[in-house]
Specification:
By secondary structure, this protein is an alpha/beta fold. The chain has two domains: 116 residues, NAD(P)-binding Rossmann-like Domain (Rossmann fold, 3-Layer(aba) Sandwich); 158 residues, Dihydrodipicolinate Reductase, domain 2, CATH 3.30.360.10. It is 34% helix and 28% strand. The protein has an eight-stranded mixed beta sheet with strand order 8-9-10-7-11-12-13-14, covered by helices on one side. Strands 3-2-1-4-5-6 form a six-stranded parallel beta sheet, with helices on both faces. Helix 3 links the parallel strand 4 and strand 5. Helix 3 runs parallel beside helix 4, helix 4 runs antiparallel to helix 8 and helix 6 crosses helix 8. The longest helix has 26 residues. The mean pLDDT is 95.
């Protein structure tokens, strides 16, 4: 595990330049940062980085092992596929692609070539989630009865924001709704089904702005209620109600490295108490996990293929149920 992974970035999205590239540069024992590709270098002001003109120009380089892709959703399928065909491991922003069939195809290709294809839900590597799972597994709040999660943003100031653009794969489901769907699987298992859903569209923009769904275990009685959206009051929470208590946190998806998460834990025996957790850097954790998947055995790769496909299937189900209603 002492090999350096030579990695490049396709695109100069804010999440890449603010949160991922600086960490890649800091993990010098694991990664060698090759550069960032952009279609128009004249608009990029990062003098400390090697800027490559054009995405093809970067993935054509022979000194590359992996890529990170923070492009708009509608561009994921094309560039993930091209990267995999070049023999590159891929870390891609969520959602992995715009529909279930595309996601299946990409994962089958990654499996055929024995390459890592990882969807960047970095929150799942935060130590906060590990603590929550330990509390639930240890029965602190008794048996799980209800899971609720909401992820909503206030309006974006720029109406040309990629999240509002249908042609770029915008919409609240793929951007915000994907998070509580993924969290539901992490806590209730991947064998879930969407029994009801709602999506509300902006007719002028042509994209879904807010919605929600009810997800239930296929072979069990547990369920989750999720809500998500743009142009809403900010919400980023998880609530788990058990037979003997309740757990709540209000920064489950976006706990930055300098943020100290707080769990609100209420039980019959001890009443309400606040549990202050350690701050953590889930972007760093995810990059280390990506590195481990590349240089480790194939077990993690297989698990991630299943994760990607089950996530895309639930998003498709949610959309279908919403249309039916």
């Amino acid at each position: 595990m002492n090999k350096k992974i030579r990695i490049g970035v396709l695109g100069t999205a804010n999440i890449a330049m603010r949160s991922v590239v600086p960490i890649l540069n800091s993990l010098k024992d694991k990664f060698e940062f090759i550069g960032v590709a952009t279609r128009d270098p004249s608009k990029v002001d990062y003098p400390d980085y090697n800027i490559v003109k054009g995405y093809d120009a970067l993935i054509e380089q022979t000194n590359l092992d992996a890529v990170y892709i923070p492009l708009p959703n509608a561009m994921h399928y094309e560039w993930v596929k091209k990267s995999l065909k070049k023999g590159l491991h891929v870390l891609v922003e969520k959602s992995l692609a715009c529909n279930y069939e595309e996601v299946k195809e990409l994962n089958f290709l990654a499996k055929e070539k024995n390459l890592v294809l990882l969807e960047n839900f970095q929150f799942r590597t935060h130590s906060q989630l590990k603590t929550i799972r330990e509390i639930l597994d240890n029965g602190v709040i008794g048996k799980i009865r209800i899971l609720r999660s909401t992820f909503c943003f206030p309006p974006f100031p720029d109406k040309t924001n990629i999240r509002y653009r249908k042609d770029l794969g915008g919409g609240a489901l793929l951007d915000a709704g994907a998070y509580p769907v993924r969290l539901s699987q992490l806590l209730l298992g991947k064998e879930l089904e969407v029994t009801s859903a709602v999506l509300n569209f902006d007719e002028d923009l042509g994209v879904d702005i807010w919605g929600g769904a009810f997800l239930k275990q296929k072979n069990g009685s547990l369920f989750s209620q999720i809500a998500f959206g743009f142009d809403n009051y900010y919400q980023c929470n998880l609530e788990v109600v058990g037979s003997k208590g309740k757990l709540y946190t209000n920064r489950i998806f976006t706990a930055k490295e300098d943020f100290t998460p707080t769990l609100f834990l209420e039980t019959n025996s001890e009443g309400l108490k606040e549990v202050n957790l350690k701050d953590d850097n889930h972007f760093k954790n995810m990059l280390i996990y990506f590195y481990t998947c590349i240089l480790g055995d194939s077990i993690n790769r297989e698990e991630e293929y299943d994760n990607n496909i089950s996530q895309a299937y639930l998003l498709q189900e949610l959309r279908s149920k919403a249309i039916e209603s």
